[in-house]
Predict the structure.
Amino acid sequence: MSTKLTTMLNIKYPIIQGGMAWVSDGKLAAAVSEAGGAGIIAAGGRNAQWVGEQIRLAKSLTTKPFGVNVQLMASDKEEIMDVICKEKVAFVTLGAGNPIPFFSQLDEAGIKKIPVVPNVKLAKRVQEKGADAIVVEGMEAGGHIGVLTTMALMTQVIPAVDIPVIAAGGFADGRGLVAALAMGASGIQMGTRFLVAEECAVHSNVKHKLIAATDNDSVVTGALHGHAVRGVKNKFTDRFLELERQHTSEEELARLATGTNRLAAIDGDVENGMVQAGQSLLPLTKIEPVKDIIEHIIEEASLVLGAIRKAPNLL
């Protein structure tokens, strides 16, 4: 399955693993890359030493390309970027800030630059400044989200740029992959789908919480204050949303939310922590190896494409 993205990154399938804070480590990234996609180590919440250790761990587990996600709001982003450039990973995804000041450093290290963009204006700007590809992430995604849906972003961003576009937010199966490619995307990014992978380090309580979730269990906290975060409904989200409706101050809400991602992902408290996950929950039915997840998605995508070819009246 060849696209501009697979050619650029030298990967077999147009699937990138999302950079999930506290979750996406070297083991998961290597597993995704070994299975034909492109794994990502998440630097969010971590220091430069940890990032370097995980890059070296991934290199010990695979010779295939993988990347690192950098949250540009981090106070030590320069130190983290220095480590990434020293280790020379294949690519970097950059979000939550202005990625352009780091482009020349990444170019010198031979690292592909893939910013995460929320709208057409920024997509055009980063392309003009030399981005190699972009990720457009719709509000269906887990974690911090914007205001546009994945479909709206693909509809408006893809025709506006010439570089590869990776669609993110709500993708979990082969049908979604085909839909993104049909829209003109060069690949998809999935995070939530890999949370139930055997190689994923997220606490087992989170995996079982996701498997038990229904299609209506996705909620968004913080939307009233411009800091929207999507996760799975639990005691924490109920309490947070109730306080939002009571017009509780942003400062108090921030104190309530601080540390809740780690509380769920690492400590396993799936009632008082924030279980960050996207809207496509029903495909999460069991804990299985990354290889099986990707192979199933590609097999399903091939079946969908085959069915389309056999039904010309649909076109």
Remarks:
- Residues 3 and 186 are 6 Å apart (CA to CA).
- DSSP finds 13 helices and eleven strands in the chain.
- The chain has a mean pLDDT of 94.
- The first helix runs from residue 4 to 9.
